[in-house]
Design a protein that fits this description.
mainly alpha; two-stranded antiparallel ribbon; 434 Repressor (Amino-terminal Domain); 2 strands
């Protein structure tokens, strides 16, 4: 499964709030909602987040294998 835990740590480390993402950078509140609930996002969205936060993909998502 894909986890967005690194995303929230990156926001904290960079001192950026979700409010700033929405109102300063025009990021979708709906996408943030989807991420909070572990739902999928597009590669374009991932690219946009990496651009806004000036970070790599691994600073946004992490893959956690499902237990069999």
């Amino acid at each position: 499964m894909i986890s967005y835990v690194p995303f929230y740590q990156t926001l904290k480390d960079k001192g950026i709030t979700e409010y700033q993402l929405i109102y300063k950078h025009g990021f979708s509140a709906y996408i943030l909602h989807r991420m909070k609930h572990g739902e999928t996002i597009t590669l374009k969205t991932l690219d946009t987040l990496c651009f806004i936060l000036d970070c790599s993909v691994s600073d946004i998502i992490i893959y956690i294998p499902d237990e069999a």
